């Protein structure tokens, strides 16, 4: 079995050259054509001096060209670094500098702007090329030796210090996950995988490479369609998407804000979600609207690809309050490290530590943070494990459960509080659709807890506070509770806790006492 | 017309925290393509319009033809307000 991502494409291209690899507004692109165009781009990149191990930036819209970019960079023996569209130029410059990106692949009409935005003094970016510029190069694969442990891509995630950090994933890391996923989810050449997540979000790794593994088609979802739930549902139906993978909020918009009736998406056989907790009442509704679709909860920080999975049982038991994150992937070992540094037993809480083939090589150019994140867990003193910062517990059946973030643990009035616990308490109120709790530093109390609630129906904030008082010790009851239309999201669709916190700090200074 | 568009501009800048200035939000600017509204921003805007103007936006009305630009939003809102007015007139006692 191959352990190189671009060999998945080559293998499918050799086996079924005329099968469809990508469907976008430009039509169908076959595996043979995708392979040829990737090889042409690889040769262009090599002619510009790109060498194995280099990082190449990808600043491309969600079309077939994005896949040409991904495979072109890999075929040149380099690693791709997504430079997302629609984010501030200053952040892109930070990434380009941190990753030492010399060459950027961008859409033809964007190339001049990207050159102006990212090039210039102090920037490593020297060349900006468009995929189409490679058309004159031969379409055969360049002979470049790539090893399974070589870097395949670098994904930037927000760091707790405020500077983004580059997660380095090797071919072996990615293929271990992709090969498992393609088998577990029985992906075949008859499948059509929607690509909803942007390339800088690791959910895209499944869409892009599991499709190539199986010779299936990838269908990138244009952002203009993704924003309108009813248009998106039509898109999923008309393009006959069979596999969907996104954060729960996006899946939920697709099924419950689109005017969908049960059975309207008969081709959709699989709905995978990850990145956040899917509130159980919303999941129940989604499962009713997609009666023949199998649902899976996948879990894993970017640093581990996906490390656990949980097939959602149908029907979902009445007493299910929160979904488990499930069982580890084959070849992945988990350990929960308790506060006093020993392996947590069944039913005890600890920080999840992950070892195995899917775990990253480290943070690019940041040995101290790598050493801090990758260090032995108490059950295996010799082998480094990624410390996730997520608190988990294992039940008697072996399933793992996510409890909250370690770093959302705060102290208020001397008490230790997990903000996840405040959120879970709020979520048990019938009028609460979604909520988030943040802690605002306070000289007098250590922290003050603030909560943001998206209500399902009109409800007074005072009633929700009263509910919290009825289920939580008083020190855990939010000091300020605000109802909002929606929670702010990061570019990867996760709840933007940083922004909530900033909002609350501003109003705390204005209104405090 | 000015009122709705102005109100939406203000909402985008003040409530959604968009970084640019309101004057950059021209009437025909495609709000989704330009990344000014994403799916959740769009739903926040819908809720805001419902609450501040007392209109009901059906999930099926959340399409680019209605909500793609400030101009289409303005036209959509005007239509919904007109509908509400005529319904009110029809149900009013003679």
TrEMBL record, chain A:
Please name the InterPro entries in this protein's record. AA_adenyl_dom, AMP-bd_C, AMP-bd_C_sf, AMP-binding, AMP-binding_CS, AMP-dep_synth/lig_dom, ANL_N_sf
Task: Report any one BP term from Gene Ontology.
Answer: amino acid activation for nonribosomal peptide biosynthetic process
Q: Where is the AMP-binding enzyme C-terminal domain?
A: 421-494
The Gene Ontology terms for molecular function here are:
phosphopantetheine binding
Q: Do you know which Pfam families this protein is assigned to?
A: AMP-binding (PF00501), AMP-binding_C (PF13193)
Q: Which residues form a coiled coil?
A: none
Gene Ontology, cellular component aspect: cytoplasm
Domain AMP-dependent synthetase/ligase: from-to ranges? 10-364
Give the protein name, as stated in the record: D-alanine--poly(Phosphoribitol) ligase
What is the protein's species of origin?
Streptomyces regalis
TrEMBL record, chain B:
Cited SUPFAM superfamilies: ACP-like
> Record's InterPro entries?
ACP-like_sf, PP-bd_ACP
The record places domain Carrier at 2-81
One Pfam family cited in the UniProt record for this chain? PP-binding
**Looking at the record's lineage, which domain of life comes first?**
Bacteria
Q: What is this protein called?
A: Carrier domain-containing protein
Q: Which organism is it from?
A: Streptomyces regalis
């Amino acid at each position: 079995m191959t352990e190189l991502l671009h060999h998945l494409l080559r293998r499918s291209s050799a086996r079924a050259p005329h099968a469809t690899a990508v469907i976008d507004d430009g039509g169908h692109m076959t595996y043979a054509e995708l392979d040829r165009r990737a090889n042409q781009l690889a040769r262009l990149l090599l002619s510009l001096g790109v060498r194995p191990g280099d990082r190449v930036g990808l600043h491309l819209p969600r079309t077939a060209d994005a896949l040409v970019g991904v495979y072109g960079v890999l075929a040149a023996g380099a690693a791709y670094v997504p430079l997302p569209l629609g984010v501030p130029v200053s952040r892109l410059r930070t990434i380009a500098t941190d990753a030492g990106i010399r060459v950027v692949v961008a859409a033809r009409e964007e190339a001049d702007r990207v050159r102006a935005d990212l090039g210039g003094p102090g920037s490593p970016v020297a060349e900006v090329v468009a995929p189409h510029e490679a058309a004159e190069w031969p379409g055969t694969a360049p002979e470049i030796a790539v090893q399974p442990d070589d870097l395949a891509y670098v994904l930037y995630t927000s760091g707790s210090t405020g500077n983004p950090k580059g997660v380095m994933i090797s071919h072996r890391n990615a293929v271990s996950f992709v090969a498992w996923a393609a088998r577990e989810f029985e992906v075949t050449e008859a499948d059509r995988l929607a690509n909803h997540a942007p390339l800088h979000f690791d959910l895209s790794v499944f869409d892009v490479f599991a499709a190539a593994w199986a010779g299936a088609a990838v269908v990138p979802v244009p952002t203009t369609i993704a924003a309108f739930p009813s248009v998106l549902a039509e898109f999923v139906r008309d393009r006959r998407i069979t596999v969907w993978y996104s954060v729960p909020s996006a899946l939920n918009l697709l099924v419950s804000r689109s005017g969908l009736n049960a059975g309207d998406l008969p081709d959709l056989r699989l709905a995978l979600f990850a990145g956040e907790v899917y509130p159980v009442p919303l999941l129940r509704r989604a499962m009713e609207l997609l009666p023949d679709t199998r649902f899976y909860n996948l879990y894993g920080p970017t640093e581990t690809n996906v490390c656990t999975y949980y097939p959602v049982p149908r029907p979902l038991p009445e007493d299910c309050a929160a979904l488990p994150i499930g069982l580890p992937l084959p070849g992945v070992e988990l350990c929960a490290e308790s506060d006093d540094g020993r392996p947590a037993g069944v039913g005890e809480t600890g920080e999840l530590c992950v070892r195995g083939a899917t775990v990253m090589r480290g943070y690019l150019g940041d040995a101290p943070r790598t050493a801090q994140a990758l260090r032995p867990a108490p059950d295996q003193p010799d082998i480094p494990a990624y410390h996730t910062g997520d608190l988990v517990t294992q039940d008697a059946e072996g399933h793992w459960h996510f409890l909250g973030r370690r770093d959302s643990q705060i102290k208020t009035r001397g008490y230790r509080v997990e903000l996840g616990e405040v959120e879970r308490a709020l979520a048990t109120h019938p009028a609460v659709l979604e909520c988030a709790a943040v802690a605002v530093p306070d000289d007098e109390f250590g922290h003050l807890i603030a909560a943001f609630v998206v209500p399902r129906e009109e409800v007074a904030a005072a009633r929700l506070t009263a509910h919290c008082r009825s289920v939580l010790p008083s020190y855990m009851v939010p000091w300020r509770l605000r109802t909002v239309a929606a929670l702010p999201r990061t570019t990867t669709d996760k709840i933007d806790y940083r922004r909530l916190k900033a909002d609350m700090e501003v109003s705390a200074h204005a209104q405090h006492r | 017309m000015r009122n709705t568009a102005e109100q939406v501009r203000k909402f985008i800048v003040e409530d959604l925290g968009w970084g640019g200035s309101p004057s950059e939000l021209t009437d025909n600017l495609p709000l989704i393509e330009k990344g000014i509204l994403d799916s959740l921003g769009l739903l926040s805007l819908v809720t805001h319009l419902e609450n501040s103007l007392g209109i009901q936006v059906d999930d099926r009305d959340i399409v680019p033809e209605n909500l793609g630009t400030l101009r289409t939003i303005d036209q959509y809102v005007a239509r919904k307000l007109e509908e509400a007015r005529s319904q009110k007139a029809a149900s009013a006692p003679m």
